[in-house]
Specification:
By secondary structure, the protein is mostly helical. It has 13 helices and no strands.
Length: 239
Protein backbone atom coordinates (compact mmCIF):
# COMPACT_ATOMS: atom_id res chain seq x y z
CA UNK A 1 0.00 0.00 0.00
CA UNK A 2 2.82 2.39 0.86
CA UNK A 3 4.30 2.14 -2.63
CA UNK A 4 0.92 2.93 -4.23
CA UNK A 5 0.39 5.79 -1.77
CA UNK A 6 3.83 7.25 -2.54
CA UNK A 7 3.27 6.88 -6.28
CA UNK A 8 -0.12 8.62 -6.09
CA UNK A 9 1.15 11.44 -3.88
CA UNK A 10 4.15 12.06 -6.14
CA UNK A 11 1.83 11.98 -9.14
CA UNK A 12 -0.30 14.74 -7.64
CA UNK A 13 2.63 16.84 -6.41
CA UNK A 14 4.51 16.54 -9.73
CA UNK A 15 1.50 17.82 -11.65
CA UNK A 16 -0.49 21.02 -11.45
CA UNK A 17 -3.59 19.31 -10.04
CA UNK A 18 -2.64 19.47 -6.37
CA UNK A 19 -1.43 23.06 -6.53
CA UNK A 20 -4.43 24.29 -8.50
CA UNK A 21 -6.81 22.59 -6.05
CA UNK A 22 -5.04 24.03 -2.99
CA UNK A 23 -4.81 27.55 -4.44
CA UNK A 24 -8.45 27.58 -5.61
CA UNK A 25 -9.63 26.22 -2.27
CA UNK A 26 -7.77 28.93 -0.34
CA UNK A 27 -8.99 31.67 -2.69
CA UNK A 28 -12.64 30.64 -2.44
CA UNK A 29 -12.59 30.11 1.32
CA UNK A 30 -10.75 33.40 1.81
CA UNK A 31 -13.37 35.24 -0.24
CA UNK A 32 -16.16 33.59 1.75
CA UNK A 33 -14.72 34.52 5.13
CA UNK A 34 -13.25 37.95 4.44
CA UNK A 35 -14.77 39.47 1.29
CA UNK A 36 -18.25 38.33 0.22
CA UNK A 37 -20.84 40.68 1.77
CA UNK A 38 -23.26 37.97 2.91
CA UNK A 39 -20.65 35.89 4.72
CA UNK A 40 -17.59 37.99 5.60
CA UNK A 41 -16.79 38.11 9.27
CA UNK A 42 -15.77 41.77 9.32
CA UNK A 43 -19.33 42.89 8.56
CA UNK A 44 -20.85 40.18 10.74
CA UNK A 45 -19.05 41.46 13.79
CA UNK A 46 -18.79 38.20 15.76
CA UNK A 47 -15.69 36.06 16.28
CA UNK A 48 -16.94 32.82 14.78
CA UNK A 49 -16.38 30.83 11.58
CA UNK A 50 -19.90 29.61 10.91
CA UNK A 51 -20.07 30.96 7.36
CA UNK A 52 -16.75 29.34 6.51
CA UNK A 53 -17.76 25.91 7.77
CA UNK A 54 -21.24 26.04 6.24
CA UNK A 55 -20.06 26.95 2.72
CA UNK A 56 -16.71 25.14 2.52
CA UNK A 57 -18.32 21.68 2.02
CA UNK A 58 -19.83 22.91 -1.25
CA UNK A 59 -16.34 23.86 -2.43
CA UNK A 60 -15.05 20.41 -1.47
CA UNK A 61 -17.91 18.83 -3.42
CA UNK A 62 -16.30 20.27 -6.57
CA UNK A 63 -12.60 20.21 -5.72
CA UNK A 64 -12.30 16.68 -4.30
CA UNK A 65 -13.77 15.01 -7.43
CA UNK A 66 -11.26 17.08 -9.45
CA UNK A 67 -8.52 15.30 -7.49
CA UNK A 68 -9.97 11.78 -7.64
CA UNK A 69 -11.31 11.73 -11.21
CA UNK A 70 -8.00 10.40 -12.54
CA UNK A 71 -7.51 7.70 -9.89
CA UNK A 72 -8.60 4.66 -11.95
CA UNK A 73 -10.00 6.39 -15.05
CA UNK A 74 -6.48 7.25 -16.16
CA UNK A 75 -5.30 3.71 -15.48
CA UNK A 76 -8.08 2.41 -17.77
CA UNK A 77 -7.38 4.96 -20.48
CA UNK A 78 -3.62 4.38 -20.59
CA UNK A 79 -3.95 0.62 -20.25
CA UNK A 80 -1.82 0.46 -17.09
CA UNK A 81 -4.63 -1.07 -15.03
CA UNK A 82 -3.55 -4.60 -16.06
CA UNK A 83 0.02 -3.92 -14.92
CA UNK A 84 -1.25 -2.41 -11.66
CA UNK A 85 -3.55 -5.33 -10.86
CA UNK A 86 -0.80 -7.92 -11.52
CA UNK A 87 1.54 -6.34 -8.99
CA UNK A 88 2.15 -8.32 -5.78
CA UNK A 89 -0.22 -6.02 -3.93
CA UNK A 90 -3.80 -6.81 -2.94
CA UNK A 91 -6.69 -4.95 -4.54
CA UNK A 92 -7.56 -3.47 -1.15
CA UNK A 93 -4.05 -2.08 -0.71
CA UNK A 94 -4.16 -0.56 -4.20
CA UNK A 95 -7.45 1.18 -3.42
CA UNK A 96 -6.27 2.32 0.02
CA UNK A 97 -3.03 3.67 -1.45
CA UNK A 98 -4.94 5.76 -3.96
CA UNK A 99 -7.49 6.80 -1.33
CA UNK A 100 -4.93 8.04 1.21
CA UNK A 101 -2.93 9.81 -1.50
CA UNK A 102 -5.95 11.81 -2.69
CA UNK A 103 -7.24 12.36 0.86
CA UNK A 104 -3.88 13.79 1.95
CA UNK A 105 -4.03 16.36 -0.86
CA UNK A 106 -7.45 17.45 0.43
CA UNK A 107 -6.11 17.71 3.98
CA UNK A 108 -3.16 19.78 2.72
CA UNK A 109 -5.69 22.15 1.11
CA UNK A 110 -7.68 22.48 4.34
CA UNK A 111 -4.71 22.87 6.72
CA UNK A 112 -3.65 26.44 5.77
CA UNK A 113 -7.12 27.71 6.69
CA UNK A 114 -6.13 27.27 10.35
CA UNK A 115 -4.63 30.74 9.88
CA UNK A 116 -8.21 32.03 9.74
CA UNK A 117 -8.90 30.64 13.21
CA UNK A 118 -5.83 32.28 14.75
CA UNK A 119 -6.57 35.55 12.96
CA UNK A 120 -10.15 35.67 14.20
CA UNK A 121 -9.07 34.67 17.70
CA UNK A 122 -6.56 37.54 17.70
CA UNK A 123 -9.07 40.06 16.35
CA UNK A 124 -11.74 39.04 18.87
CA UNK A 125 -12.69 41.33 21.71
CA UNK A 126 -11.37 40.16 24.10
CA UNK A 127 -8.67 38.19 22.33
CA UNK A 128 -9.43 34.49 22.14
CA UNK A 129 -13.17 35.10 22.21
CA UNK A 130 -14.03 32.25 19.86
CA UNK A 131 -15.70 28.87 20.40
CA UNK A 132 -12.62 26.66 20.03
CA UNK A 133 -14.59 23.46 20.65
CA UNK A 134 -16.92 24.19 17.75
CA UNK A 135 -13.96 25.01 15.49
CA UNK A 136 -12.19 21.74 16.38
CA UNK A 137 -15.38 19.78 15.73
CA UNK A 138 -15.94 21.55 12.42
CA UNK A 139 -12.38 20.94 11.23
CA UNK A 140 -12.70 17.27 12.16
CA UNK A 141 -15.96 17.25 10.21
CA UNK A 142 -14.26 18.82 7.17
CA UNK A 143 -11.47 16.24 7.21
CA UNK A 144 -13.94 13.35 7.46
CA UNK A 145 -16.10 15.00 4.80
CA UNK A 146 -13.09 15.12 2.50
CA UNK A 147 -12.56 11.41 3.22
CA UNK A 148 -16.14 10.58 2.20
CA UNK A 149 -15.93 12.65 -1.00
CA UNK A 150 -12.54 11.08 -1.79
CA UNK A 151 -13.92 7.56 -1.35
CA UNK A 152 -16.90 8.43 -3.57
CA UNK A 153 -14.67 9.90 -6.27
CA UNK A 154 -12.34 6.91 -6.34
CA UNK A 155 -15.29 4.49 -6.47
CA UNK A 156 -16.85 6.32 -9.43
CA UNK A 157 -13.50 6.45 -11.27
CA UNK A 158 -13.54 2.63 -11.44
CA UNK A 159 -16.69 2.70 -13.57
CA UNK A 160 -15.39 4.79 -16.49
CA UNK A 161 -12.19 5.65 -18.35
CA UNK A 162 -13.49 9.18 -18.98
CA UNK A 163 -12.22 11.58 -16.32
CA UNK A 164 -14.84 14.23 -17.12
CA UNK A 165 -17.68 11.74 -16.63
CA UNK A 166 -16.06 10.54 -13.39
CA UNK A 167 -15.86 14.15 -12.19
CA UNK A 168 -19.48 14.98 -13.04
CA UNK A 169 -20.95 11.83 -11.46
CA UNK A 170 -18.76 12.13 -8.35
CA UNK A 171 -19.76 15.77 -7.90
CA UNK A 172 -23.46 14.97 -8.29
CA UNK A 173 -23.36 11.99 -5.92
CA UNK A 174 -21.37 13.93 -3.32
CA UNK A 175 -23.85 16.81 -3.48
CA UNK A 176 -26.85 14.50 -3.29
CA UNK A 177 -25.54 12.65 -0.24
CA UNK A 178 -24.50 15.88 1.46
CA UNK A 179 -27.31 18.36 0.72
CA UNK A 180 -29.76 16.64 -1.63
CA UNK A 181 -31.12 14.24 0.98
CA UNK A 182 -31.20 17.09 3.51
CA UNK A 183 -33.37 19.15 1.15
CA UNK A 184 -35.67 16.18 0.50
CA UNK A 185 -36.14 15.81 4.25
CA UNK A 186 -37.62 19.32 4.41
CA UNK A 187 -40.61 18.05 2.42
CA UNK A 188 -41.68 16.01 5.44
CA UNK A 189 -42.41 16.70 9.08
CA UNK A 190 -41.86 15.04 12.42
CA UNK A 191 -40.02 11.76 12.76
CA UNK A 192 -40.01 11.08 9.02
CA UNK A 193 -38.12 14.31 8.42
CA UNK A 194 -35.62 13.42 11.15
CA UNK A 195 -34.96 9.91 9.86
CA UNK A 196 -34.50 11.04 6.25
CA UNK A 197 -32.25 13.90 7.33
CA UNK A 198 -30.25 11.47 9.48
CA UNK A 199 -29.17 9.71 6.28
CA UNK A 200 -27.68 12.92 4.86
CA UNK A 201 -24.03 13.76 5.42
CA UNK A 202 -24.93 17.34 6.30
CA UNK A 203 -26.85 16.21 9.39
CA UNK A 204 -23.76 14.60 10.92
CA UNK A 205 -21.34 17.28 9.72
CA UNK A 206 -23.49 20.03 11.27
CA UNK A 207 -23.67 18.10 14.54
CA UNK A 208 -19.87 17.98 14.74
CA UNK A 209 -19.81 21.75 14.10
CA UNK A 210 -21.64 22.32 17.38
CA UNK A 211 -18.55 21.14 19.23
CA UNK A 212 -20.09 17.91 20.51
CA UNK A 213 -18.11 14.86 19.34
CA UNK A 214 -20.99 12.40 19.22
CA UNK A 215 -19.71 8.94 18.29
CA UNK A 216 -22.74 8.40 16.03
CA UNK A 217 -21.59 11.20 13.72
CA UNK A 218 -18.03 9.89 13.59
CA UNK A 219 -19.18 6.32 12.97
CA UNK A 220 -21.53 7.44 10.18
CA UNK A 221 -18.88 9.40 8.26
CA UNK A 222 -16.19 6.76 8.70
CA UNK A 223 -18.61 3.95 7.79
CA UNK A 224 -19.70 5.74 4.62
CA UNK A 225 -16.06 6.11 3.56
CA UNK A 226 -15.43 2.42 4.26
CA UNK A 227 -18.57 1.46 2.34
CA UNK A 228 -17.39 3.31 -0.76
CA UNK A 229 -13.95 1.70 -0.44
CA UNK A 230 -15.67 -1.71 -0.20
CA UNK A 231 -17.65 -0.91 -3.37
CA UNK A 232 -14.43 0.09 -5.15
CA UNK A 233 -12.57 -3.08 -4.18
CA UNK A 234 -15.42 -5.38 -5.17
CA UNK A 235 -16.00 -3.64 -8.51
CA UNK A 236 -12.31 -3.92 -9.37
CA UNK A 237 -12.31 -7.61 -8.51
CA UNK A 238 -15.30 -8.19 -10.76
CA UNK A 239 -13.64 -6.36 -13.65
Amino acid sequence: MLSIFTKELNGYLNSLIAYIVIVLFLIFTGLILWVFPDSNILDYGYAEMGSFFSLTPFILIILVPAITMRSFSEEYKTGTIEFLMTKPVSTLNIVLGKFFGAWLISILAISPTLVYYFSISYLGSPQGNIDTGAVIGSYLGLILLAAVFTAIGIAISTFTDNQVIAFIISTFLSYFLYDGIHQLAQLFKGKIQYYIDFISIQFHYSSLGRGVLDSRNLVYLISLSLLMIFVTVNHLKRK
